[in-house]
Design goal:
The protein has 249 residues and is α+β, with helices and mostly antiparallel strands. It is 41% helix and 29% strand.
Length: 249
Amino acid sequence: MYRSRVTSLADRGRRSVTGIAQQSTALVGRAAASATDALAVPGARALATARTFTSPIQAQSAPVPVDGVEAANRLLRQLGITTFTPTVGLSTDLTFPVAVGGAVAGPYTPGIGNLTIANVSVNAVRGGEILYGFLPVGVFADFGDKSGVHVAWFNVTTLRGGLGAPLGGLTDTVIDAVSKRVKSAPIPPVMYAGTVSRLKRALRVIPSNGVRGGLVDTGQGVVVCAVYGTVRRGRTSYFFLPSIGVTRA
């Protein structure tokens, strides 16, 4: 009788110890899991923070050609000029700069839109004309001879085509065209001066890095265009392959 009671107490003790051990194991497991989660959350936050700090550094890295092309596209579109395919310049220094051509049909004035004074259209680009633009990416000389860039065009509607005159500076081309329109229109001189001043302010976004522009009388219709030619940088000349596009005049 006494032995059976001792055995029973011993069994109960073993079961109690086993239960306590199991509970302790569960508590340790939960604590470990909680600790892992606690470490994981700050780790994830630290990783996210690290990515946040590294992104601006990557964005501030040296520009690559595609970034330059995107900037050129934005500038031309800001002026209302539809961009063509990008092109590359060939030279002996093996730098291969890129450039973008574009065009806008009239009536239109880059930087302003439809320019009218006293119900008289004085747009730089008249109906049946196309203004071509050419923007090389990078720093190019914008002085001296600017006659290296040309336009080849073909009007598929009228079956007319040709090689346009060499392009000049884009800003000069637009201002000269508007000045010519205004002077030939019945407009008071005071209105002429104000219009030219407004136009010059609108065209300040155009950088001085070899940007070219020119007007071509293509007639109305669908016109296939190619802008190509030579731009200088220092003593080196770069021949840019055609930048091709289609415009409806």
